[in-house]
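Schema walkthrough. Field components (list of strings):
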Amino acid sequence: MEKTLVILTFACSVIALLFAFITARRVTKSPEGTDLMKKISLSIRKGANAYLKRQYKIVSIFFLIMFVILGIMAILNLLTPYVPFAFITGGFFSALSGFIGMKIATLSNARTANACREGLNKGLRVAFSAGSVMGFTVVGLGLLDISIWFFLLKFIFKLENEAITSAILTFGMGASSMALFARVGGGIFTKAADVGADLVGKVEAGIPEDDPRNPAVIADNVGDNVGDVAGMGADLYESYVGSIISACALGVAAFHDIKAMALPLMISAIGVICSILGTFFVRTREGATQKQLLRALSYGTNFSAILIAIVSFPLVYYILGSDNWAVYFAILAGLISGVLIGQSTEYFTSDSYKPTKNLAATSETGTATIIIGGLSVGMLSTLVPIIIISVCVLVAYFVSGGASSASMGLYGIALAAVGMLSTLGITLSTDAYGPVADNAGGIAEMSGLEPEVRQRTDALDSLGNTTAATGKGFAIGSAALTALALMASYIDKIKSIEGGAEKVADLSINNPTVLTGLFIGACLPFVFAALTMNSVGRAAQSVVKEVRRQFREIKGLMDGKAEADYASCVDLCTKSSLREMILPTIIAIVVPVIVGLVLGCTGVVGMLAGATVSGFLLAVFMSNSGGAWDNAKKYIESGVHGGKGSENHKAAVVGDTVGDPFKDTSGPSINILIKLLSMVSIVFAALVVSVSIL
Amino acid sequence: MEKTLVILTFACSVIALLFAFITARRVTKSPEGTDLMKKISLSIRKGANAYLKRQYKIVSIFFLIMFVILGIMAILNLLTPYVPFAFITGGFFSALSGFIGMKIATLSNARTANACREGLNKGLRVAFSAGSVMGFTVVGLGLLDISIWFFLLKFIFKLENEAITSAILTFGMGASSMALFARVGGGIFTKAADVGADLVGKVEAGIPEDDPRNPAVIADNVGDNVGDVAGMGADLYESYVGSIISACALGVAAFHDIKAMALPLMISAIGVICSILGTFFVRTREGATQKQLLRALSYGTNFSAILIAIVSFPLVYYILGSDNWAVYFAILAGLISGVLIGQSTEYFTSDSYKPTKNLAATSETGTATIIIGGLSVGMLSTLVPIIIISVCVLVAYFVSGGASSASMGLYGIALAAVGMLSTLGITLSTDAYGPVADNAGGIAEMSGLEPEVRQRTDALDSLGNTTAATGKGFAIGSAALTALALMASYIDKIKSIEGGAEKVADLSINNPTVLTGLFIGACLPFVFAALTMNSVGRAAQSVVKEVRRQFREIKGLMDGKAEADYASCVDLCTKSSLREMILPTIIAIVVPVIVGLVLGCTGVVGMLAGATVSGFLLAVFMSNSGGAWDNAKKYIESGVHGGKGSENHKAAVVGDTVGDPFKDTSGPSINILIKLLSMVSIVFAALVVSVSIL
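Field assembly_structure (string):
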């Protein structure tokens, strides 16, 4: 069975990567358009490349230091010798996912704009193909890395199953660290540029979005690529791999058998094939309405999801046998919950529904009321996802036999996360296509293409907001489930260490170390959100000052007679975002160790639970507030409540600007944070057990 | 010992009430000023009275319904027959505290303004005396109610100690329900009026604060009284009583002895005397700077706190004996933590320190950046209080012998809350004086008194913001500790019910029912904050429209030739706030019962922990964001960053307006919410145990 497993997983990962490669070739063969378009696209590409180069330089110093620390711990016998290497590969593949995604996105933006000159369907195909490259690169690399490690540890080093999962979990820590750097750094870059461009360009100077006179306009477009593409790629690579490896670890703990480890891998592998099949259904006819466009995308995703739901039943039955086939419902619960959370996100953030419509109406009474309104929409929107996740946890736990064996139940929770992310290949394609369309719109505007081209890219872009909402639902939901699974893995890990079992004997919630851990853990996402928002604020302020300076000092800029100094804004964003990304990441790595040393293992468990719960709430709150403000603004721009340029619109722009770091920097970073905390705790478990008193 | 206990507590409560009565007589004897001042004060008084009358009417319907429900449960033997009556008296005394506080505040506002005509010291004395009346009414009524019930249950009905504490806890539920109504209703009223007055008056029409031409100006002043005074009175009555009764309950559970119950009562009783002594030190000389004014107030508070720290040592030693005297350090930890949380609040919200100064600077780049900045200041400010509370919980638990007996440790946590609130008599006096000074400023402005009078009232008012910050520290800190103590009481209560012990056998944080309870509980403060903010938003919008209408339709209003229709704004605020206060309170009462029935007792414990943790974070975040915006605005008004009327100032006003519901409606209500949830759970414990399956 082990061999079949490795071969199948490896095969599916190769299929995914091949599919991505072929799609990429097809995309890059399509024409890039006019010379001006090529020039703009090139400067975006250059800016994005320059950013990533510098980011990877800084990150590699971090990885080097961590490699040394983990190496020393391995020498001290606190870790197995594979751990430092697993850590590095996790980081490497996560970075690679982001890099490839960004590469193809920056190669496709002008091509999408150019295809939109011919028609909407063509544009959709190019943009969606670019998204697919990223989607399938992420899942392909994820499965590749897991299968290679599995092969090495099982067949070359001939380790026990428990030792294998333990080493593979570290690999998740590498991926999470990299993802956090990418998300935070990219998130700060994109929002600093966006906020800076909007505040001076739109609000003060009154020029439209993506106007070439705005010195921050290229930086804004670069930001979409390094934040929304490279950041998201690294992030979802981490989610995908994290859910699989935590399920493997819990499966081995529950069954002491390779088959329990096979299941999550097989479901993911099958998911890749189903997702590829789904992509062929994404096409639309010319002149399609927004609803029809959305249907085209949903059709592909739903097809894949239903296919997985059908295929995974015999799979579970075949792998786990007739005693445990009910675990299937855990996978199904995850799949359905992901969709439901996405729908709830859409309800609260799309201007087709009441919350965002009402929010737009609050602009009538000014900026303050739309801010208050957006915050309360976000806070209120936490209720439905909380209920969905709670039901999912209970269902996954109890159908998997949690009532008789807790470890079986926890395995079920981990599988729910795997089920939720099994369609990642296609959901990520629909998600990653958004920034490409956004960029295409920018290029269309800057290179003065016909208005109908801009209309088409706008139609694609606006659709991207909806798919991004759904994507966020999956990301947040799976993060919560995976974090819970990792918390269970942490407890297992402690128990497996000599003298560890007694350290986690009393995990009662009224045990004061668990309670204080809970308090501290719950506080972390708040602190983290504050730091990242502050970073965006600081970076944005420097951009605002630079843009104002250029407007003041470059004569003829406003009349279109002189060109803005785009590079200086890109450079400013690069510098400040790289400087700002370091502290949050270090906090995420240092705090679990300190908590462990001071409060002991029970404190760490409390911390993980607290961070998961408050992180989930804060991530949903911030993402949805941001989404609602964004769409309320767009709704007003469509002509209601005074339309573009009115006082109400100005109020809505402020709301949107506040929402930017909410939904694209702090919110998504929290998803990574809560998993990274658990992975760090697992890696440093032996140290904590041997040193702490409590 | 029991008799001495009752007599001493009763005596101290009578002393507190007498002191309040004498102070009230002295205040009301001072002159009210010119006819215009009398007239304005009268309309504020009328508005506030009318509001409270209508509020009490609605609330009494609620209490009647609850009385019937509890009565039926008592008949079904799910509760002791004293419970429904205890519930009613708790609500009654809580309401009475708010009512008396508001009565004296509305009688003192003009008198304070008038005293400020003579000098700053005179003004301070009048305003502070009015605050003292409220402070000592609250503690006096609290001790009175507890001692009467104790007397009845012990000596008339001759109940066991356990049965006594159990009945007295219900009395806390009555107080909490009333407090929630008062805080939410009053909070919505005051902020709807404030936001409405600011948005149209300050921002749109450009007239100063408290300008008599603003139709919402009387409503704004009424709001200060019904929200910041009556709401706060009911709120802190609940906190005070809640901390004492939860300590009594845990004390009896730990020691099975009346002496453990005596301790919290005695500390509170001694606290009353120390607080009265402290009030005599609050005076300042003419022309005092703000720092000297603050020193005058701190001198009184610190004197009381140190006195209590000294006196409670022999008290603990005498009552608990040489084996358990270390419990003293739990009380001390509480006392110190309260002060430290207050200081941290001051650091993050006062314009003497960096966070608020930096926040003011963000106004340079517009409204969006000051909003982002304020949110991140608030989120970041949760870290220090979380650490303080965590350390306090650990110290209180372990010094009280938690390592050998968990119930002793939990008793220690409850005593820390009692220690924190032991100086409530004087801290509440310094807190409640703020709204009086605020009102006095309004009256000075509206009745056209000399500019130096307004300067003096402004000095007093601005000081009030700082003391309010400290007061909030105590309120939030004690709420968290009390909520933890009540959670422990809940577990004790379940164990005491037949068949209950097995229902709380596994309280591990990785038990899925505990976990889902945690998720749901943590979500409640978010939903609650959203609902209350929405309510403020809705109510404020109606005020905005009404004020705009009056500006438009009443000819000559802006030139001061015609008078605004103040009453219509007061009426509008009254109606909307009363309508809006019902839903949040009902949620707080219904949810614990539903969670209990669906998830069982372990789910309830998870819910209580989740609500406490996320409620604490959200309350600190919201209060401090609000405070920082408020003071950033005042800082700009002092002449920096462009000063009053500049674009930066306008941005800061928006921040302040967003902060209003944060700090005065949602934030403080959450404190009550987290305790009410536990009390409701305790009262319905028997029902849940007998009905739920899990």
